[in-house]
Amino acid sequence: MTEKELFEKNQKLSTEFDLYLLDHPELLDKSITFW
To answer: Which InterPro entries match (predicted)?
Structure first.
């Protein structure tokens, strides 16, 4: 896997994670208090 492929995969994952958090805002609240 090239660095470019790795980067694209990483971008896709973080986008999916953001969308997931938008669907589950309560998780975001927990993680903020956790940190």
So the answer is: DUF5647 (IPR043707)
Contact in structure between 27 and 21 (CB atoms under 8 Å)? yes
Could you read off the pLDDT of 1-31 as tens digits, one per residue? 899 999 999 999 999 988 988 898 888 777 6
Both tokens of 16, joined, read: 């999916």
Does the reported pTM lie above 0.85?
no
* Torsion of Cα atoms, 20 then 22 then 23 then 25, to 10°: 110
